[in-house]
Structures are given as C-alpha cells and as structure tokens.
Write a structure and sequence with these properties.
This protein is an all-alpha fold. It is built from 23 helices and 5 strands.
C-alpha cells in the first residue's frame, strides 16, 4: 500500500489530491463523471437542502397509500400513525449511519458498495437496489397511468370504447399506463436535473390537495370524531401480527434510501448539516402526511362503507372538474418522485456495470424496462400485496445489505478509507478477483435468519420483522468475518495518505 498522500481532509470532508485525481480517472472501468468522488466545491448542500429533499419525497402518493392501507388491514388511526412513526425513526437511524460515508468521502452508492462487496462484487448490492427502485418506478407509473386514465375517461367519452379487458384491466387503462410510462422514461433520460423546477412545485401542490381532501373528508364524515372513532379490527396476537409487519413495511418503504443515501449526502457541506436536515424532517413529515392519508381513508369507511386506500380510486367518485384537477396533481407527483428518487440509483448501477458504454440516459431506459417486469399492477391489487408482499419482502432483502454497509464503515474500517484505492481494479478493495466472498456469506446469514421465521411458526416474528433481523444478522456476521482484514487500514496508514488543508 502506498504511503504518499493521496487525499486531503478539509473540515468534515475528504477529497482526492490533484495527482491522485488524475491517476484515478485513467481507470475507465472504474471511473466516469457520475462515479467519481466530489470535489471540494461540490460539497455545497446545506442542511435545509436535505430537509426539503425529504419533505418532497415524503409528500407523495405511495406515502398516502402506505398509511391508508393500514386502515384496511384493521388498525385504527392512532395505531397506524404509531406504526408509521416507529418505522420512520428506526430506518432513519440506519440512513444517518450510512449518510456519514457519503458526506465524508463524496462517493456515490455504487462506489461505496465496492468497500464491502469488492470492486466487481459491488454490482450485487447496486443491482439489488436498482431492482427495488425499478419496482417503485413502475408503481408510480401505474398511479400516474390510473390518474391519466381517469382524466381521459372523464373528458373523452370515446376513450371508454377501449373497454376490452386485458389481464383484469380495461384496454384504456393499459394505454394510459403506456403513455405515462413513456413520458417518465423520456424525462428521466435527461437526468434528475430535468425535473428540478417541477419538483419545486410538486410537493406543496400535493400538500395543498391533500389538505383539501382532508377538509372534504371531515365535512362529509360529520367531523373528526366519527371519522377517527372507528375501532381497531385486530386485537391481541392478531394486532401484533399486523402492527409489526406494518412498521417493518414503513422501514422497507425507505430501506432503499438507507443504502443509496450517499448519492445525496455526498454533496453535503457538513456532517451536522445533513444529520439535522434529515432527522428534523423525515419522521415528522411521514407522520403528518400519513395521518392525513389515514384520516381520509377512515372517512371513506363512513362515507362509502369500505376503506378506499388508493387515492385514484377515491378521486374517481368526485365531479368531473375535481377528477381532472386531482388527476393532474397525481400525475405531477408521480413524475416528480419517479425521476427525482427512483431513477438515480438504478441508472447509476447500470452505469457502474459498464462505465465506458452505459451513460445515465441508457440507464434510465433500462430502469423503465425493468419496472415493467416488476408488474406494478399486481403489487397494487390489494393492501396485503402492497404492505406485506412488496414492502416486507424487499425490506428483508435490503436489510442484510444495510447491516453489512453499517458494519463495514463503522465497525470494520472505523470510518477510515483510502479513497484512491476505490478506483483501482486491483487495489486493496478488490479482494478475491473483485469479490468479497465474506460479504456474500454475511448476506446469506442475514437472509437465512429471517427466512427461518417463514418456515417455523414459533419464530414467525423473524419473518414479520424481516428487515430488522436481516440487518442484525448481516451486520454481526460481516463484522465477525471481516475482523483483521488487510483492507481495513490502520490509523497510522490513514494518516500517511491523508493531509490537512
């Protein structure tokens, strides 16, 4: 390992020296403009930027449906809000632990993953994250397609002529979904910056529309009293069998960000700024917006005799003008969250596979195609599919990755990295031909612990709490397997390659 300085510490961040930067960019298989570490000037985001980022991401249709679906599962309003808040706080803890690495070293998620899975093995966690992001891309596209279909069905009677049922849905809905999907892919190809101005108005517009929906619900249901007086339908053991997976579903909702949050925190000015910006915004916004979704869904039980947790199904019961306006708002929200939150990770992951050939635009197209394979219409068929099958299952899968990432950075390396080595095909993070087989072993341990609960009824809680137990299993296994590994540089080695500005 070299002993000349290759990185510079400036306050909370570390950047490459000019010489190390020039050398690293020659490794075209490991480096491109999207994968390189940030320069000092690019560490420019204040804490308020992270607060606005989280507020914008939380104020979206999937958050509303997540909350509303818990009512249809049998929880009452305060139990559902509690599940949302508990899940948000738990996953925020993991998010903040992983955020530190992004801020300190300015690296994106696929490069961060090279630390624990190896320079080539990093494709495994990167593509796992990409798979989930593509699923969310499809879900938001389905919501947007439903909204577009509702508008076209309302204002164009001829649209209803495409009524033949395909796969359980009328043709006109499939056509609307295809149109909306194509719009999303076309915008995504231009990069997240293409959605910048739209994002500035999307979150407040959704918030205003949601408040208007709440006012309608309160009035139609006869006030907050009747609306929130509906008792819980599950008690005792059945309550815990519903509450725990619901809270874990909330964790799964943001488990993706617990992995690729470095894609955003790499731009932070300071550790304190990004920490406070995230901690003071995410759980509170989730709880407040979820309460709104829960309240409206509870009102639909009184007004329509059943819980309507999908907002598109609800707005179709309103007059034509309201359907058009509300549908446009759903479309606005779906496009914004899709391009802003669901394209970055998979596009970067595909870039990381072949940096010389695949750029962000190609990665965006591949994300869109993968989203179709995820069949979002099936995920959203029932609240059980959405909370238990989708959120619970992928939360379990990502939990082990989250645990490995946290163990690697905090316990194995103690926050000491050789930044230049991350861009060397045969560097200290290459392990065995680019793969860290101990990370694979820890991953299987994490998954295995949760899967035991699926097959053995007495410990079914391991399955219901899949993300938590998968994370703990992966974390402990990785820490034990990696103790003393040569890639974990000592404090003396770190000081030898790091200079102070």
């Amino acid at each position: 390992m070299q002993t000349t300085a290759t990185q510079v510490r400036v306050g909370d961040v570390i950047v490459l020296t000019d010489a190390a930067h020039k050398e690293a960019e020659q490794n075209h298989s490991m480096w491109n403009e999207d994968l390189r570490p940030c320069t000092l000037a690019e560490h420019s985001w204040p804490g308020s930027k992270f607060a606005s980022l989280w507020i914008g991401m939380c104020l979206c249709i999937p958050t509303y449906t997540l909350a509303g679906s818990m009512i249809s599962l049998g929880l009452n309003w305060w139990e559902a809000v509690l599940a949302i808040f508990v899940g948000s706080v738990v996953v925020l803890s993991a998010i903040l632990l992983v955020s530190h690495a992004g801020t300190k070293y300015g690296i994106p998620y696929p490069v961060f993953a090279r630390l624990w899975f190896g320079t080539r093995g990093a494709h495994v966690p990167a593509l796992a994250r990409a798979l989930i992001a593509a699923g969310w891309f499809g879900i938001n596209s389905w919501f947007g397609g439903q909204a577009l279909d509702a508008i076209l069905t309302t204002v164009l009677p001829a649209w209803r002529a495409f009524g033949t049922v395909w796969g359980g849905y009328p043709q006109h809905l499939w056509f609307a979904f295809a149109i909306f999907w194509l719009i999303n892919v076309a915008i995504a190809m231009r990069g997240p910056q293409a959605i910048g101005r739209l994002a500035q108005i999307a979150a407040p517009t959704v918030a205003i529309a949601a408040i208007a929906l709440l006012v309608w619900a309160v009035h139609s249901a006869g006030g907050f009293g009747p609306m929130l007086a509906a008792p819980a339908k599950v008690h005792g053991g059945q309550f815990w069998a519903t509450f725990l997976p619901s809270a874990v579903g909330v964790i799964g909702f943001w488990a993706t960000l617990a992995l690729n949050i470095p894609d955003y925190t790499r731009y932070a000015k300071t550790q304190r700024g990004q920490l406070l910006g995230q901690a003071l915004s995410m759980p509170l916004t989730m709880a407040l917006f979820s309460f709104l979704g829960i309240a409206v869904t509870s009102a639909t039980v009184i007004i329509f005799g059943r819980a309507i947790w999908n907002p598109v199904d609800l707005i179709e019961k309103f007059p034509v003008a309201v359907i058009v306006i509300a549908g446009i708002i759903v479309i606005l929200s779906s496009v914004t969250i899709n391009v802003g939150a669901n394209v970055m990770a998979p596009a970067r992951a595909f870039e990381n596979l072949w940096p010389r050939v695949i750029n962000f635009a190609i990665g965006a197209v591949l994300t869109g195609l993968l989203s179709l394979a995820m069949q979002p219409w099936r995920v959203l068929e029932t609240s059980q599919n959405y909370v238990f099958l989708w959120l619970g299952t992928y939360g379990l899968m990502l939990g082990a990755f989250d645990g490995i990432a946290i163990a690697d950075y905090w316990l194995v390396r103690k926050r000491r990295l050789d930044l230049a080595q991350l861009y060397k095909p045969s560097g200290i993070y290459a392990y065995a031909r680019g793969f860290n087989l101990r990370a694979v072993g820890a991953l299987l341990v994490g998954w295995g612990i949760a899967l035991i609960g699926y097959f053995l009824a007495p410990v079914h809680f391991l399955w219901n709490g899949g993300w938590v137990f998968s994370l703990l299993g992966g974390l402990i296994a990785y820490w034990l397997l990696m103790r003393g590994d040569r890639s974990a540089i000592t404090e003396e080695q770190f000081d030898a390659i790091t200079t102070e500005a």
